[in-house]
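Figure 6 in text form: structure in, sequence out.
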């Protein structure tokens, strides 16, 4: 608004016009001669002939015309331009027009009056019969400013710097907000070390206070998450010793009662093995979440061979439900952590087999997209699927879509969580979606390039 006001103020103080506008400028001398002739015509032929004569584009281009007699009584009112059919605001300005007519008839000289955005021209007339008249022209109306190129030129000149300044101010104001949003996104992705404000970036004021509070919140979240992960890792590690001793004790009991078949010993052994598996999974998940580098090294692996070996083992489990693992697999060699990737795909595959209805097959498809430089692994079952609101939560540790679902199916609730962390170690992504015809599809995407160990090991 300030830029527009400044531009139009300067144009009023230092007026200028384009060539066409200068060509169309009002000439009082030419107008006076035209009005004198038109008044003589009026006496002879009437109002219509008068208006027809004054509507000459080379003389008067816009506005209205009013003809008064020697007593300042209105005789004719009409448009001075053939393109304008209306007389604007006459009744409001009628006393002014009549007063100008009296003044010019008394003085005998033409008068040019500027009233706001309106310009008035009054001229005394005397016909061949000796009668006296006065003509008043409205040379410009406020609305007519929109008809001139100068108005739109001034508007453009004002809008260009105004738009530039507005964009710069907008960028200046939104840059800290975008940085805060990016930091929040990094924090949501698991980068607990993400912070919003280097010193002085946000400056003072509300944004600076918001950035400071955000960093305090992120620091507390990091402390809580680190403490939680350390607790899980420590508890899992501490459970390892007693479990090892329990296995030894069970082995001794088995040797002592080798000739007897004790259901109690079998139950204890079964539960101990389950607890040992849970502890091992907890230790693996805690290490991956803490950003620890895998114990193995990167090796070239054929994805097709890896999938086929997993399918060979998974078919034994699927056979109990009269199902099979089917699908098509394209081949490509990737530089990966073999055992970690194998475990990730195996966890997803076995999860699909676990929830697939009896007599149905599970699909494991592998597609290579050279254009996007990625490998896409899709595991699809015909099971009940997962509620839409929970699709992103199934990769969280111990998450269950229904109470007791994992335990009743023999799972621990850690398989998909380990798969998610293992895929992220390979700089990939994992997601789940429900099929239109029922069933769940888990999609693993891996880049064709090798993972970045430095990034993997820095996620603390």
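Output sequence:
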């Amino acid at each position: 608004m300030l830029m527009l006001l400044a531009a139009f103020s300067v144009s009023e103080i230092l007026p200028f016009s384009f060539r066409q506008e200068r060509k169309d400028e009002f000439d009082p001398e030419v107008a006076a001669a035209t009005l004198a002739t038109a008044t003589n015509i009026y006496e002879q032929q009437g109002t219509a002939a008068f208006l027809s004569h004054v509507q000459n584009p080379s003389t008067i281009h816009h506005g209205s015309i009013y003809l008064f007699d020697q007593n300042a009584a209105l005789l004719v009112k009409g448009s001075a331009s053939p393109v304008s059919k209306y007389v604007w605001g006459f009744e409001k300005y009628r006393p002014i027009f009549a007063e100008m007519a009296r003044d010019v008839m008394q003085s005998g000289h033409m008068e040019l009056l500027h009233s706001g955005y309106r310009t008035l021209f009054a001229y005394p007339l005397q016909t061949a019969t000796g009668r006296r008249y006065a003509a008043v022209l409205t040379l410009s109306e406020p609305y007519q400013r929109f008809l001139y190129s100068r108005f739109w030129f001034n508007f453009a000149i004002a809008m260009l710097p105004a738009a530039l300044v507005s964009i710069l101010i907008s960028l200046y104001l939104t840059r800290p907000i975008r940085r805060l949003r990016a930091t929040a996104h990094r924090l949501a992705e698991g980068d607990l070390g993400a912070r919003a404000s280097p010193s002085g970036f946000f400056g003072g004021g509300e944004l600076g206070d918001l950035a400071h509070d955000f960093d305090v919140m992120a620091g507390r979240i990091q402390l809580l998450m680190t403490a939680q992960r350390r607790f899980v890792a420590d508890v899992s590690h501490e459970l390892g010793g007693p479990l090892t001793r329990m296995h030894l004790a069970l082995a001794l009991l088995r040797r002592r009662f080798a000739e007897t078949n004790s259901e109690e010993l079998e139950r204890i052994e079964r539960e101990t093995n389950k607890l040992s598996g849970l502890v091992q999974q907890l230790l693996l998940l805690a290490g991956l979440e803490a950003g620890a580098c895998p114990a193995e090294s990167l090796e070239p692996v054929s994805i097709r061979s890896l999938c086929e070996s997993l399918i060979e083992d998974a078919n034994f489990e699927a056979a109990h439900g009269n199902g099979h693992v089917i699908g098509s697999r394209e081949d490509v060699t990737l530089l990966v952590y073999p055992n970690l990737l194998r475990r990730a795909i195996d966890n997803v595959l076995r999860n699909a087999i676990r929830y697939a209805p009896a007599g149905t097959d599970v699909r494991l498809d592998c597609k290579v997209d050279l254009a996007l430089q990625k490998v896409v692994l899709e595991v699809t079952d015909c099971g009940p699927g997962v509620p839409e609101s929970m699709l992103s939560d199934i990769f969280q540790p111990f998450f269950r879509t229904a109470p007791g679902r994992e335990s009743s199916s023999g799972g621990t609730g850690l398989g998909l969580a380990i798969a998610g962390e293992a895929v992220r170690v390979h700089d990939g992504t994992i997601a789940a979606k429900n099929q239109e015809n029922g069933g769940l599809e888990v999609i693993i995407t891996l880049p064709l390039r090798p993972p970045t160990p430095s990034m993997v090991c820095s996620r603390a």
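Caption detail: The domain at 299-456 is CATH 3.30.565.10 (Heat Shock Protein 90).
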